[in-house]
Amino acid sequence: MKFAFVFPGQGSQSVGMLNSWQDQPDVQQLLSQANNALGSDLSGLIAQGPVESLNLTTNTQPAMLVAGLAAHAAWVAAGGPAPALMAGHSLGEYAALTAAGSLKLEDAVRLVRIRADAMQAAVPVGMGAMAAILGLDDEAVKVACESAAEGQVVEAVNFNAPNQVVIAGHEAAVERAMVQAKAAGAKRAIRLPVSAPFHSSLIKPAADVLAQALAQVDVSVCAVPVIHNVDAQIHASADEIRVALVSQAWHAVQWVRTIQAMRAAGITHIVECGPGKVLAGLVKRIDPELIGLSVADPESLQQALDTLASNS
Q1: Active site residue 199
Q2: Which of 150, 203, 267, 303 has its CB surrounded by the most CB atoms within 10 Å?
Q3: Model pTM?
């Protein structure tokens, strides 16, 4: 039995998502470090809201980073075994790298706030959009985007599971692509409640800002290998990790390939560290033979530890 950790990105946040860890000293220390690094009360926002503030990209990204790392800290405190591999979906990749010892928490939390602000600044609110296309294969989604572009940008940006692809770009082009996708046989095309077209080429200006910030941060070799979203590869050197993170900001998240790479490496169980069960659910859709678990609170932590122990 070999297992991996995965960390969720934006979309899984909720007010009170870390309240169940309030008696866990390691989690409280982590929250204190994040507050100090940002110079603001991130932990208070996570605990009490308001939800409108938590859902602002500038707050969501550091909040979800901390949420994933809180679950990881609780796992370590409980004496849980070390995984063979790690990965994170989009923003979650920063949590994976921090948990793997490549980034310091203080640097990571500041980096993701810079990333969030730069992404939002790259495309004014209302100019970009994202949508989930369900029930249509990857190539057909790409064709729909090409047909709908009409001189604007609309691209497939998240390959989350078979027949589940997210597109992003200029708002009008995304709307046209949704119509094209449904005409091509998609079961559903759903606008996502986001404030920027993440992972599209429109975000390239943010990647340039991120590159400058990453150049000022110490990046270490990972103690546990991390598979990167952008190419589903493990990058060993600090410079390669920086390049992968910069590229990831404005290129597609290759989540299907990431999970397939884990399976090819002999992984049998994948544990999602953080709120929600989105990634654990995607695992089963990508490969039904993989076992997806989640660690979001003390109860699910114990369940995951028991499951791994019984399969070891």
Answers
A1: yes
A2: 203
A3: 0.97
